[in-house]
Amino acid sequence: TSVMKLKPRKYQLDLALIAQERNTIVYLETGSGKTFIAVLLIRQMYKELSKSLNEGGKRAVFLANTVPLALQQAKFIAQQTSFSVGVLVGKCKGERRQVSWQSFFDKYNVIVGTPQTLLGLLEVNVINVKMINLIIFDECHHATKHHPYSRIMDIVKNAQQSDRPKILGLTACIFKGECKPSKVPPKLAELEEKLSSTIAIPGYLNEISKGKIPPTEYVVCYDVIDSTSCEHLEILSDCSFLLKGLDEMHTNTLKSKVQREQQSTSVQLVLSTFDEAIQTIKAFGLRTFPLVVDGILKCIRKELITVKRKDAACDTFSTCDSWYSPVIRILQSKCNLEIDQSHPLHTCPHFTKLLDVLRTFKDEDTGIIFVDRRVTAFVMHELLVRISKTDASLAHINVGCVIGRSSIRNLLLGQPQMSRYEQEEVMNRFRSHQYNLLVATNVLEEGVDISECNVVIRFDRVNHFSSYLQSRGRARADDSSYILMIDQDNIDKFLEEYNAWHAVEKFLRSSPEILNGITSDIGKSLISNASNDGDEALLTKFVIESTGAEINLFSAISILFRYSQSLLNTELPMFDYRTHDDKVQAIVKFAFSIPPEEISIEGPIVSNKKTAKKAAALDACKFLHEVGEITDNLEPNRGKYRQLIDKSQFKQFPIKFPDCLSLPLGNAEDLYLNVIKIKVKNNVIESVDGVSYKSIFGLLCNVQLPEIKKTHLLTSHGDVTFSLQPQSIPLRCSHDDLKIISKFEEYLFTNITPSSGISNLVFDPATSIAQYMIVPVQFRNDTSRGIYSINFKLMTSLLQPRKQWTRASYFFNNYNGHTNYEADVLIVKNYGHWVKNVVDVYALLEICNHLSPLSKFPTDKRLTFKKYYNRKYCVNIEDSNQPLLSIKTMHQFSISLVHEHYMIPSVNGRTETKKKSGGSVYLLPELCLIHPFPASLWIISQYLPLVLFKIEKICLSYEMLNYIQCSSLVQELSEPRTKKLSRYQSENILDRITQSLTLPIAEDQCNFDKIKYIGRVFIKFILAVNLYQMYPNDNAYSLTMKRRQQYSEQHLFTLAADTKIPSYIISKPFNQLKCWIPPGFAFNADLHNGSSDNVDIAEKTIMESITNNFLSVKSIADCISAIVGALIIPNNEGEGVNFLKWLGLAFSEISDANSNQSKCNIVMVNDKITDMVKMYDSEVWIQNLHEFETYLGYKFNNFNYLIMAFTHTSSEYGNSFNYEKLEFVGDSIINYLVIKYLLHATNQDISKSKFFYNIAISNEVYGLLSYVHNFHNLFYQTPFVKEMIVDFEKKTSDMVENGFIPNEINKHEWIYAVYSKSVNDEIKIPKELADVFESLAAAIYLDSDQNLLVVWDVYSNLAKPFLDKLLNDDSIISRESHDED
């Protein structure tokens, strides 16, 4: 260590030795060098502090209550030692990664910070007490009740004895607040028990003080003047009383509760300003009256501006203005009121006495005036500055002001809150004697290093012993004075307290042997009493063994609320209470997800309601952690599948695993190698320049898997593209080969890839459900048996003992003096401390030929690399000419899928910034080994779990497709199955099936949202057609009810539950640590059988979550719709019908959309329709219908369909036949065709554009399309309908005349304009127009032998131009996004 700049005194050395032996509280008065004792103790721990954390090193932590104190102490420690000192202040943000904090602690030897920041890190176990060997509590007398000091000690006590750090407390007061001499021993014992320390007071404490003359203490009395007859104070009191009366009189006249609360808050702020003003005048006299009145007026004006900004309607502002106006007029009229200088209150005796004291102040003196309130400090500073300019006897005074920061709003005189930088600026001027007098609040009482002053004045009365000691301790200079100012009326009471303080101080200076004996006995008593308290048992922390994170009564509620807010249903926990005699029990109710239900947790019975709530929350957090809903780091397990669902609305299904990947390899003669190619882009975490991605893995199984073309994934660690290429030629592997592969697989998923956080997961290929194997693959030129082969050389090298790995010095001899090497090298250290089976790895960036072991070490220029390694690791470097290796640390990380909407586009820019911010790290080849894994293969292995998960799901989709075919399609089709599959694959049917099986709550980028809507409208369409033909005598309402019953979510759920489909559904987000089992791994037998009592609930729940699907009724129904959508795209409607028939829906035969021949019996329209029409002399109407056929471009085979399509129920023969049943069928036909067109026309996600979707198939749009194509002119003898149409035409004409709708626009722009008016309810579009538009579609469909292509040929001419305009309208999407926000 470096040479200390200060020389320790004997008592400092003695106390440091005591602190080295046991936990110690050092009690020394202010200015006695307590911090230097801490420095001595830190220096004695040099060996542990000098090592990195990975090498078994630990850190010393110095805690100070405020940021200025922390910065001051950090600077002092850095000056007195050679240690690297880090500053830990500010809020501990949860977003900062654990690795970053641990890197921070690894970088610095000594950490100086505030206790709240350290407490936040300890509570979530980002760091733990094992990393710390010394905690120093500055001003340790604050360690009471719930102070962060106290809570840190609770965490320390909860650790094992061997892991607890040494404790050193520093204080000049030894207890906080007031205390009688008889109560001192219990106070001291309580502090000792809290800090697990003993108080160390040198026996020669009085001798320490001999070299230092204590300050002379003076008590200065001042008279108290009756201020009741002062006119100026009466003005302020009257204004305050007037404002209170107006507030009470008019508050209830405000309409809203918000306005009343806002008004009351505003008035209270102004009233508090009046109180401050009155107190200020009583303290400083009438000379401050203009100053405080001006401050009050500014305060009122500022409040009026604030109220006006908050109240848009200005109701509150007008009320406030009317209330404040008379007050403002009174103050303005009295502001210039002449002040009689002979008035007794013109200069308050309190302030006058202070001026008398300051007149004795010499030019060389320096002093501090302590006051209680910030406003007092502000006013005093202003007055002293003014008086020093006019009073010659005070001209030598240069005054500065230091006040603290507070969350309390105080508006009088607009006094600011000083930042720590402003405070430091003032104190620097005081230290440099630019100021010789400071006015300060208690911010300067504790710890802050200021230059020695010889005058300390307490302007306001000292309230307690600790404040007396702390302020007196500022008078450090020789021959200093400590002046206490007391009013004459309270002098007797003060002197009684003053004498008691001296008695306490005398007791603290008594023999340390007597003192320690007293405190030890009382400490034992305190501990025994605490153990008998029933509620104290609740304070036992719940500690998570794997990480050391703990939950206590103070943090349980916030953790429980954070978990609830992470759910889709963000309902907060509810607390109920039960009384048991004089005690209370709390019951907490909250949402839970596995299985979805509401959970109630009963807490213990305790003495009060507040503790009962905390205790119940603690028990709830224990339960959530046990079942895996809270991670080991106390974070919510962020699966989006969590939401509250009624138990009757879900069912449990076993999760299917692909058969092709579950066949044992040991009995197979031929194995198939399937090459996995992975490419990573924008890898923001592990970006390494020059690393290639040529290395690949292979999947070894019994069958040749289907080819998977390039699949793009957006992940939390960059963009990933992977593909699967099956090799057609099988491989022969011996038993020894399979044994090597098995060991490699275990090593890969245990040490290289973070594959699972499940403790009961073991490597057991015999019982694992995933029987495939992962191998490294190499390219080979011999194409007789395939172009890829298994890289047994790499596996053999990896599995051999570490000491047999290639030394880096041998490896890089080939590159000596060259830089054109292949930088695909992974390096490990061969020195220092390392944990078995855990190897830190580094990627090689560059061979630095310009650096050698004789180069200067970057962080300590006094040492070379050679000397540094010798001193720190006790190793001798033999080759002083070897080049250094520039490396980058490679971290293990878990991958998660990210939705494309949440990806940050500027990844490259962020990566570049990250590269620039990091410093270079160098290693010596002589001390390193070459890892058998290339760097590229190591990086790719981090993405391997996600890729394997996707491969498993795609194989599952392939088997699902086979399952559907074998059950429904193969029986109907004559073409071979393989041919059918080939056609499916050419149309990306596997991708669509995978989409249809993936729920959106699985957080996958590929889910059924894009195709479930077209499947849904197709099912409704097919059901409508079949019900129409199966029930010819039912009316439209009856058919609608039947379809609703068959199409209900419950009915589809019931049908699907009898099949294997629910087992194929992907319902959970990918989580390689919780929801995925690596190949070759399995749950142990006890967890499977549930026979062991040691198996906890959490492990069972995790296994249940991996092996079972908990699916709601709606999820399965949506999945069925999505499967239908996947099958019918692009034009395979017949296959969708076959699937629905197989599922269990009763269907008659229906033709394929591509067929022109009907295969079913349609209920024909009775020929009597023609006769009935002739009876009513409708030749003109019939002629118009024939002309309409020409307009449509379609000639009806059965003209009666067209007649029915335009026959309204209100017509003369509407009771015999009408278009209602056609409209029932046509509505589904048009909806299906429109959604199909929209889906094919764009790649738009309809589910995320519901506003867009609703416009396209709305009755308003159908009605307007019907109107512009003159459908309304073809209604026959329907006065009721014609009346509504005439009214509609009149309103649209009026809007055109008034300019609300443009005049010269085409028909589709006119539809757009009128539709926007209908949305705002400015115009109503007759529904009958939409009905006839839909009924005509059904008429064409039935007349054309159910040919959808014919229907779309007709309707594309009618609707397609409008749909295209809708697709190109960007304002629709932006409007939707705004509505969602």
Alpha-carbon distance between the two ends: 59 Å
Strand content: 5-15%
The stretches of 5 or more residues where confidence is low (pLDDT under 50) are 407-413, 511-539, 638-647, 684-693, 900-918, 969-987, 1092-1098, 1150-1164, 1373-1381
Largest sheet: 7 strands, parallel
Describe the structure in your own words.
With 1381 residues, the chain is an alpha/beta fold. 46% of the residues lie in helices and 14% in strands. The strands form 9 sheets. The protein has a 7-stranded parallel beta sheet with strand order 3-4-2-5-6-1-7, with helices on both faces. Helix 43 crosses helix 46 (1327-1343). The chain is flat and about 125 Å long.
Give a brief outline of the structure.
With 1381 residues, the chain is an alpha/beta fold.
Looking at this protein, list some descriptive labels.
1381 residues; alpha/beta; 7-stranded parallel beta sheet; 6-stranded parallel beta sheet; 35 strands; 46% helix; disordered C terminus
